[in-house]
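We emphasize that the prediction below concerns an isolated chain of 413 residues; any contacts that depend on oligomerization or on bound cofactors are therefore not represented. The input was used exactly as deposited, without trimming of termini.
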Amino acid sequence: MIKTLFSIILVSAVSSVALFDINSAFAEEAVKLKNVADKLNVELENKRSRAKEVQGMINTYKDRIKQQEQAKLTLENQISLLDNRIREKELRAEEIRTQIEILSLELQALDRQIVRQEGRIKTQKALVADLIRRMRQADDVNTLHVFLSRPTLSSYFQNVEELSRLEGDLTQSLERIIAEKTTLQNDKALRETKRVSLTEQKQKLQEEQFRLEMERNSKRSLLAETESKQSEFARVIAELRQQDQATTNEIYRIEKELKDKLNAIDEALASGQTLLMWPVPVRKVTATFHDPTYPFKHLFQHPGIDLRAGVGTPIKAAGGGYVAWTKTGRSYGNYIMLVHAGNIATLYAHLSKFSVSPGEYVERGDVIGYTGGMPGDPGAGLSTGPHLHFEVRQDGIPVDPQGYLPIAIETDL
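Result of the prediction step, given as a token string:
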């Protein structure tokens, strides 16, 4: 027992020096980490300030857009409206990029904090290991030599007190290690959560960039169709409205002429037992029925859905029926109308090429044409980029096509 006490007394003096050296090294490293953390915090504040500034600019452009939406329908106003919508999209993209940068900086700060905590845990573990090692070494020291080396008994009792203090420090160190391990685990969980948020932000940014390109294409398309003249713009608007009414009237006429044939060849569709099929592989529905974000919504409502599709993608008949017409118009560009049983018609617009003729009967899944290209390309019409505009009309009236189609999982393939 005496030997053990004196062994630990000897270790205590040496270990105190070791503790001082370790803590000094840790303090120096902590200062370095703090300087890095301070720089990160300054950068974070700058990014947060920019995020607030961008949000204020977005609100300004929203107000401008609202005012222009209520203004007189002119070419100049529509171009200005599209310009402001484009600028708003650019600012929204910048806002998301800034938020991503903020999250990245926060992750860096969190990593620094974790490194610091790991350093503290390493230091404390090193101290415990050093104490245990020196205690084992001291067990081999001659007890009488240790006793004779002390000038007085009072120094012996002082060292006993030192032993008690070291035991307390050791206990506290172990408790701190446990607490810091818990903190480290919590910090790691927080980092993973932020990483998930970062991934979601990147996805939103990609969607905003795609919408931004659609807005730019909308402007190019409108300018291409109107030749930058107000008189041409007025003709386009008038033609769009006439075309919609003419489409409704002609559907009634064709349905009346083909009524007996249609009922005979597609009784299942007439009874509502069979859904239509998707005319192209469903990569992305870029605009929904009466989409509030549709770039041309202040010229006319979006009467169908837009399906993302590369130039030249084969278009398949959504159901069996007769080709009512293959036409070219200002809005739809090249487009096809099929008439089916059950007073249903489908329309396929912005085509680059037809592969059927009016009056021809097609089966479900037959290729009837191919998708078109960028604004200004032949057959594109008033388009926002390569895609298929698809409509379903019930009794001549546009209805939401997704109510007639099977549920599909969108992909980015």
